Amino acid sequence: MTPDPGTPGQTAPGQPAQAAPALDVAGLCVDVDTPAGRIRLLDDVSLTVRPGERLAVVGESGSGKSVMARSILRLGDTYRTTGSIKVAGTEVTRLSERQMSRLRGSTVAMVFQDPLGALNPLQTIGEQVAEPLRVRGTGRQEAERAAAAILEELGVARAAERMKAYPHEFSGGMRQRVVLAMALIAEPQLLIADEPTTALDVRVQEQVIDLLHEVSTERNLAVILITHDLGIVAGFADRVAVMYAGRKIQDDDAGRLFREPAHPYARGLIEAVPRIDHRIEHLVGIPGVPPHPGARPSGCAYHPRCPFRMDICEVEVPAERPLPSGGTVACHLFALEGNAS
């Protein structure tokens, strides 16, 4: 467990101190009040992301991926949050809204799935990209120079000229580059990209993912990529966290997870993805649908859809267990002889 900021660590004399994780989430629960009563959206999620690491968070709609992202930035006004969220060693749950506003952008930033919706149609591209610096006190000319430089870096041709354009004058792929420039201009340590390739064609999707990979490598930037599309994950992520019904059910090295998925749900997701390395006559889908957050079954929420369910799955929520690979899995199968065979 990561020590609190200021707590002496275990570093040996003469050795450099180890950098705090870019993100350290422990026991995160998120509830929301509805006319039907309080509903738990996220249940006991723990997650660590190291500086420069690329983590993909995958799962079907309603699994809790975006709720987790918004909780990290404290963007859910109606959320009731418990647990710990540390960004670069700072416990964000204890910050005032003013302190949190300073942290957003400068330490952690987010790219939303709808770039057109994230941009103000009445402001020029240049004004919007420069704004994160302007609100921190940077002068107009310096902020505009920085905006032009980062747009150029992200592949926007004639950036200084196009800063005078408005969002509707850019294509979907170019708008995503603009939103990414807004997120990166204040040089955060952690970037959260929430479905950044939604509604883009396959060619532009590849360009956006390549760009995320490039800026992560060049800036030693930790990235959390939230997606339901496993097809874009394999070449990007160092690690994959699989979410289902508000819980993290597997967390493992990306290569190992694709080769040997441990949790039955992770296995089902991967078997439903077309492969280019061998021929598959028929893709195998996962039967059923994810449960509504207000009507999750008892025990393991996946058990109604799981081909390996046992009696215990219906009554007891599985704890996270270590895998030989170094990852973790939350599945009762792994209480039996430590494996799913």
What does this structure look like?
Mean pLDDT is 88; it is low at 1-16. The chain has 341 residues and is α/β, with parallel strands linked by helices. The protein has helices at 65-72, 97-106, 115-118, 125-134, 140-153, 159-162, 172-184, 202-219, 254-259, 264-271; strands spanning 23-34, 37-49, 54-58, 79-87, 90-91, 108-111, 190-194, 222-227, 239-244, 247-253, 320-322, 328-330. The chain is globular and about 65 Å long. The longest helix has 18 residues, at 202-219. The chain is built from 10 helices and 12 strands. A hairpin with a 5-residue loop joins strand 11 (320-322) and strand 12 (328-330). The relative contact order is 0.13. The protein starts with 22 loop residues before the first strand and ends in an 11-residue tail after the last strand. It folds into 2 domains: 23-107 and 188-335, Rossmann fold (3-Layer(aba) Sandwich); 122-185, no CATH class. Helix 4 (125-134) packs across helix 5, helix 4 (125-134) packs parallel to helix 7 (172-184) and helix 7 (172-184) runs parallel beside helix 8.
Concise structural overview:
By secondary structure, the protein is an alpha/beta fold. The chain has helices at 65-72, 97-106, 115-118, 125-134, 140-153, 159-162, 172-184, 202-219, 254-259, 264-271; strands at residues 23-34, 37-49, 54-58, 79-87, 90-91, 108-111, 190-194, 222-227, 239-244, 247-253, 320-322, 328-330.
What is the CATH level 1 assignment of the largest domain? Alpha Beta
Rg computed from alpha carbons, rounded to a whole number of angstroms = 21 Å
CATH fold naming of the largest domain? Rossmann fold
Quickly give the structural class: alpha/beta
CATH architectural grouping of the largest domain: 3-Layer(aba) Sandwich
**First-last Cα distance:** 31 Å
Poorly predicted parts: 1-16
What overall geometry do the principal axes of the alpha carbons give? globular
Count of helical regions: 10
Query: Would you list the SSEs in sequence order as H and E?
Result: EEEHEEHEHHHHHEHEEEHHEE
**CATH superfamily annotation of the largest domain:** P-loop containing nucleotide triphosphate hydrolases
| Binned strand content | 15-25%
